[in-house]
């Protein structure tokens, strides 16, 4: 094993859009969604939208057909398969829902690459309606984090993963994300970990505002092609450091980008991974 755990956000990280918005838009319910959005939390609204679509006669098969044509960059699936083949353990932490994520991953043929999917529960009820519930039941108890939406604090998930990894020796985390909900877990990463924020998206904006708050090394990416290059470069670099073997690097011209020239000066030296 490589000693690396790669944690992916889903929307706008693995796939190239927001799955909730895509399904609502493709099934023609955008106006109702926008009308109701100011009145309830996003996660509760998605459950409500599935009720509305069900009552309009839209079936689970209709939803599955939409999910099967979700946009994804052509290099993302190969990147995931390569990281898995190199021995990384892959997990997902997402504020979408389990039904959307599993349907898409199965369609792409990569469901088995992931050992864990942390997301909002989603299942089809006996009437054939998709139900979507919060990851944390905020009607009973708050997760207590004011950076995150009420239904899910990804930082709580990362802390649980870190606690379980600490029993397995010196494992490194690579976290990939784009959204503001990925900021809380990025703050929890340790020295020796890596965060890959998507450039010019909310997570990147939050990180570059004060990069010194992030203990992990920061590597920006813009699209699936860079995601693949940077992720596999990191996996090879960390893997070879872990094996006390520095000969395993990918090609030297591999485009490893750091956050920006200005921000970089305030960052700790890259690749100071020690055992
Ligand atoms: Mg996202
Ligand atoms: Zn949080």
TrEMBL record:
InterPro entries for the chain: HAD-like_sf, HAD_hydro_PyrdxlP_Pase-like, HAD_sf, Pase_PHOSPHO-typ
Residues bound to substrate: 20, 95
Binding-site residues, Mg(2+): 9, 11, 178
One Pfam family hit: Put_Phosphatase
Catalytic center residues: 9 (nucleophile), 11 (proton donor)
Cofactors that this protein relies on: Mg(2+)
MF term (GO), any: phosphatase activity
UniProt KW keywords: Hydrolase, Magnesium, Metal-binding
NCBIfam families (alphabetical): DKMTPPase-SF, HAD-SF-IB
Name used for this protein in its record: Uncharacterized protein
Record organism: Citrus sinensis (Sweet orange)
């Amino acid at each position: 094993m490589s000693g690396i755990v790669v944690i992916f956000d889903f929307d706008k990280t693995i796939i190239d859009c927001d799955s909730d918005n895509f399904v609502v838009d493709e099934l023609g319910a955008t106006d109702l969604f926008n009308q109701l959005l100011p009145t309830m939390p996003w996660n509760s609204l998605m459950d409500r939208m599935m009720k509305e679509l069900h009552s309009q006669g839209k079936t689970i098969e209709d939803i599955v057909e939409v999910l099967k044509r979700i946009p994804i960059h052509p290099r993302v699936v190969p990147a995931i398969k390569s990281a898995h083949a190199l021995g990384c353990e892959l997990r997902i932490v997402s504020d979408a829902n389990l039904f959307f994520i599993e349907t898409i991953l199965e369609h792409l043929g990569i469901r088995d690459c992931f050992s864990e999917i942390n997301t909002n529960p989603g299942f089809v009820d006996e009437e054939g309606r998709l139900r979507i519930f919060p990851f944390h039941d905020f009607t009973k108890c708050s997760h207590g984090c004011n950076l995150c939406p009420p239904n899910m604090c990804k930082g709580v998930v990362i802390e649980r993963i870190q606690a379980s990894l600490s029993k397995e020796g010196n494992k490194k985390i690579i976290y990939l994300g784009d959204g503001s909900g990925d900021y809380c877990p990025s703050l929890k990463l340790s020295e020796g970990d890596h965060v890959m924020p998507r450039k010019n998206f909310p997570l990147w904006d939050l990180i570059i505002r004060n990069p010194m708050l992030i203990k992990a090394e920061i590597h920006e990416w813009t699209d699936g092609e860079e995601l693949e290059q940077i992720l596999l470069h990191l996996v090879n670099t960390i893997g070879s450091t872990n094996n006390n073997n520095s000969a395993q690097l990918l090609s030297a011209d591999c485009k490893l980008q750091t956050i920006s020239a200005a921000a970089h000066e305030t960052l700790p030296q890259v690749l100071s991974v020690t055992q």
